[in-house]
Amino acid sequence: MNRGPLLFLGLFITMACSWLGFVLGPQLQIGGLAQTNTVVVGDASPQSYPLAQPGAARQGAEIYRANGCSACHTQMIRPLQSGSDTHRGWGARRSLAEDYLFDQPVMLGSVRVGPDLANYGRRSDLNGVLLRLYIPQLITPGSLMPSYRYLFETRKVDHFLSRDALVLPSQIAPAAGYEVIPRPEALALAAYVLSLRQEGYLFEAPPPPLLTNALVFKTNSPAKTNSPAK
Amino acid sequence: MSATPSPASAVSLVSPRSTPAEAGKSCPVPFLCLFAGAVAWLFAAALLGLIASLKFHNPAFLAGQPWWTYGRVHAAGSAAFLYGFAVPAALGVGLWLLCRLGRARLAGPSVVLLGGILWNLAAAVGVAAILGGESTGYDSFEMPAYCAPMLFAAYGMIGVCGLLTFHQRREGGLYPSQWFVLGSIFWFPWIFSTAALLLLVTPERGVLQALTAWWYAHNLSTVFLGFAGLAPVFYFIPKLVGRPLHSYYLAALAFWTLALFGSWGGIPGGAPLPSWMTSLGVVGTVVTAVPLLAVAANLFQTVRHDLHKLDANPTLRFTYVALVFWIIAGAQQIVGVLPGVSAITGLTWFGVAQQELFRWGFFALAVFGALYHIVPRLLDLEESAWCPRLLKAHFYLTFLGILISYLCLLVCGIGQGVLLADPRHTFPEVMKSSMLPLRVSTMGDFFVAFGTIAFLLNFARILTRPCRCCCGAACAASKPREGA
């Protein structure tokens, strides 16, 4: 190993192995992934999946990225054998490559300081998200999540209370005659996290046979779940 | 030095030294520019890390301003460490080693200087942009798109000079440190350009972005920082204990296996990818046990009879501790990817603990050790020019700080993982139970920040020393130097 060119050739080959395996190979396999149909459960009709996010959610993804939300929140449900993600109610099935088809950027996160958000849209509503952004400790006492008050504006009530004003308990409500209004950034961020839902069963993640009834009830519209799937 | 001349394989570092006119000393300015920038950035990284850590005591701390919200400070701290400190420090130490081991002058010192300035400017723009909300959203690749070309160009300027320096070497045989330096110089542009093209310029579809970001982050730490940090470890340990390296072939084995297998991995268990990718990552990471054992056996054999020398020489002490931390971090990485373990510890603080130990415990300490040796030689000073009290404070504060942070985060991660595995514990409950170790880890961050301040002061002191003593005659090139 005393020759420069040989050393470089060796380094080039080792590097190329890794690059072919983890950059080019995956690109060839799932780079062309396209919208697909969900697996039919019961008498539900198959649906196209995933659907592109609405515009507000796309703007919200930028707010999510800018504020580094993925430093504390993951967006992936691991399979049944690794971790309790599914049992925790964070998702009905494991996450798949298809779930992120239209995400830009893809922010899966690496540490769960806060709960997983892969299906946050299923378990919250607009008011809940906005309150959590404004004062997280109001809903989860002792939460480590910082307040994002800078996404809100406290302003004087102009004759009538605004339709968007936050409904806050009296001890943290602004002074009389003032109201807290979410800025467009807060609304976009809320639209984004509410758009997070990994719905329907796909070929790679079919419904678990024993849980079918319970899960179908959770994931699809309740009207269609009464027919026995077994 | 009393060691015997080197065996056939040119392993010994204790052969007669090059003349004073050679070996990087020829032009200290580019080196000092790279090092001074790196040290300043390290301080910024420590400070940002401390702010982020303080937020676990009071989430409302500095929460009113978007620039100082946790997500941004955390990302900026990581970027300041990686792009402000780690890459320039790796390049500076690497170029110095290439000069010293090849007995060559630094090629194109003005180009290196310019590259260093450009790099630091780009890093400053990038970190400010991250605090301003321009982060890319990928771990370890936070710098916004417009910084990437600047960083790449600056790296190219310095890297090409490194290759030219290597080409002009006057020493025929290659020492393992030279392989490691060349490996790191070569690795970075490849992974960085791949990540920049596939994440920022023409983004890939969907989850492939996450895969590329994981691949990049894993290669950046395991291979790039690993190579760049092991180069001075392989140089200083044999040199300062005054013995030839135990085995040239074990070093070669470690180098090639780390290059081949260290570059596969970084994918968390249960990731939404076809399972062959996750499995391949697990296999690659597990096989890095080979370089781990090879390096450990090699260097511990070299240093075996001379452990008492650790007290006398600061460089040796830092380097030795860095080596031990590298081994622990590597072992933890291997254990952490095993499917049974990653099901528990995946996506918890366990991985953060490993990352911190690798970045601060291994890489930063290896660089500190190297700087304590290199900087006085660049300035034509004795090693005693370092203030011994600050040096001692730096070592103990940094060592203790890293150890405290690491152990706390490790305990926190394991506890969090074990509790989360049982769905009967609600998430807020789990978070509350992991709060204590998380908060104690702030103490470690304080120690590290104070240690970094001690180093910064010492570094400023030694830099201004030639101006202060102001006596060219006294600093004649003829004075004897330690290590000769």
Give the key terms.
heterodimer; A: 230 residues; mainly alpha; Cytochrome Bc1 Complex, Chain D, domain 2; two-stranded antiparallel sheet; 4 strands; 6% strand; disordered C terminus; B: 484 residues; Cytochrome C Oxidase, Chain A; 16 helices; 0% strand; globular; disordered N terminus
Fold topology:
The complex is a heterodimer of chains A (230) and B (484).
Chain A: H1 4-30, E1 36-37, E2 48-49, H2 55-66, H3 120-123, H4 126-134, H5 136-139, E3 152-156, E4 178-182, H6 184-195, H7 212-219
Antiparallel strand pairs in A: 1-2, 3-4
Helix pairs in contact in A: 2-6, 4-6
Chain B: H1 28-54, H2 70-102, H3 109-131, H4 147-167, H5 176-201, H6 208-241, H7 248-261, H8 275-287, H9 289-303, H10 309-312, H11 314-337, H12 339-345, H13 349-378, H14 388-420, H15 427-433, H16 435-469
Characterize the structure shown.
The complex is a heterodimer of chains A (230) and B (484). With 230 residues, chain A is mainly α. Chain A has helices at 4-30, 55-66, 120-123, 126-134, 136-139, 184-195, 212-219; strands at 36-37, 48-49, 152-156, 178-182. A two-stranded antiparallel ribbon of chain A has the order 1-2. Chain A has a two-stranded antiparallel sheet with strand order 3-4. The longest helix of chain A is centred in the N-terminal third of the chain and has 27 residues, at 4-30. Chain B is an all-alpha fold. Chain B has one domain (28-464): Up-down Bundle (Cytochrome C Oxidase, Chain A). In chain B, α3 (109-131) packs antiparallel against α4 (147-167), α5 runs antiparallel to α6 (208-241) and α14 (388-420) runs antiparallel to α16 (435-469). Classes of the chains: A mainly alpha (230), B mainly alpha (484). The interface between A and B is large, with 76 and 84 residues.
